[in-house]
TrEMBL record:
Its main location: membrane. Gene3D superfamilies: Annexin. It comes from Sparus aurata (Gilthead sea bream). Belongs to the annexin family. Keywords: Acetylation, Annexin, Calcium, Calcium/phospholipid-binding, Cytoplasmic vesicle, Membrane, Phosphoprotein, Repeat. This is Annexin. One of its GO terms (molecular function) is calcium-dependent phospholipid binding. It is found in: Zymogen granule membrane. InterPro entries: Annexin, Annexin_repeat, Annexin_repeat_CS, Annexin_sf, ANX4. It is a peripheral membrane protein. The keyword Plastid does not apply. One of its GO terms (cellular component) is plasma membrane. A pair of annexin repeats may form one binding site for calcium and phospholipid. The lineage of its organism: Eukaryota, Metazoa, Chordata, Craniata, Vertebrata.
Length: 307
């Protein structure tokens, strides 16, 4: 199913770039050796997978299947554990497959990880959303829209579904506290148009749109609207803030940290790092280093790409 055109690299502002002199067979052999015997050599696994693009990793998977006759992801999955395992398995997936997998995981079981639904659906482009939809349906035999509809409710559900289905609302936006009007405007998804709307709103009301959202809304609905606005204004700053919040204070929200580090490593991690430094006066590298440990820390720092 050729859903999208395969680039060797998905962005040009990533920390992960194509490995020179790439030899998928040799890499497959290294990974095989790293899993042989009693222990697992996590350092080798990190060294190989953190320094190859997604496209190159697909070729390693093929080479591994050819030479070993087994699925690389399955093998690594049974050898590894914890957060390190989550990072590795994420790195082996195509971008839309990883997004679809994360969305599916967020809706598993009793609770829903709303933050995941918001992070992905508010930040991906229309083209990316279309591809995620296609992969979701292929992989889980259910449309993403149906899954989200069944797992969320009320206005929050309407916003997510509209992000998924690219509703283009025509006509003039009448601003009110009426959330439907917010929805109508924000889900137009035409960035330049919306940025002008925000400026106009500021002129008319004397308030920034983000302040109004905070004042008029709460909970998941506030979160999703703020995410939409922030992503339109500066997507890399949005991710920097999400990373900061995942690590500041007590404990780490590993799911958020992993998702962003894996998903953006090849797209715009350089810019996310720059925004992080500008916003918080500290490097993303130093934050990750202070907040994580072991092989998990090592691979995240590789994806972060030095100070």
């Amino acid at each position: 199913m050729s859903v999208f055109f395969f680039h060797d690299q998905i962005g040009n502002r990533g920390t992960v770039t194509e490995a020179a002199g790439f030899d998928p067979e040799a890499d497959a052999q290294k990974l095989r050796d790293a899993m042989k015997g009693a222990g697992t050599n996590e350092a080798t696994i990190t060294e190989v997978l953190a320094h190859r693009t997604i496209a190159q990793r697909q070729r390693i998977k093929e080479a591994f299947k050819q030479s070993v006759g087994k699925d690389l992801a399955d093998e690594l999955s049974s050898e590894l554990s914890g957060n390190f395992r989550s990072v590795i398995l994420g790195l082996l997936m195509l971008a839309p497959v990883y997004d679809a997998y994360e969305l599916k995981t967020a809706m598993k079981g009793a609770g829903t990880e709303e933050a995941c639904l918001i992070d992905i659906l508010a930040s991906r482009s229309n083209a990316e959303i279309r591809t995620i939809n296609a992969f979701y349906k292929k992989e889980y035999e259910k449309s993403l829209e149906d899954a989200v509809s069944g797992d969320t409710s009320g206005m929050f559900k309407r916003v997510l579904v509209s992000l998924l289905t690219e509703i283009y609302e025509a006509g003039e936006a009448r601003w009110g506290t009426d959330e439907v009007k917010f929805l109508t405007v924000l889900c137009v998804r035409n960035r330049n148009h919306l940025l002008r709307v925000f400026e106009e709103y500021q002129k008319i009301s004397g308030k920034d749109i983000e302040e109004s959202i905070k004042r008029e809304m709460s909970g998941c609905l506030e979160d999703v609207f703020l995410a939409i606005v922030k992503c339109l204004r500066n997507k890399q700053a949005f991710f920097a803030e999400r990373l900061y919040k995942s690590m500041k204070g007590l404990g780490t929200t590993d799911s958020v940290l992993i998702r962003i580090m894996v998903a953006r490593a090849e797209i715009d991690m350089l810019d996310i790092k720059a925004e992080f430094l500008k916003m918080y006066g500290k490097t993303l590298y130093s934050f990750i280093k202070g907040d994580t440990s072991g092989d998990y820390r090592k691979i995240l720092l590789e994806l972060c790409g030095g100070e």
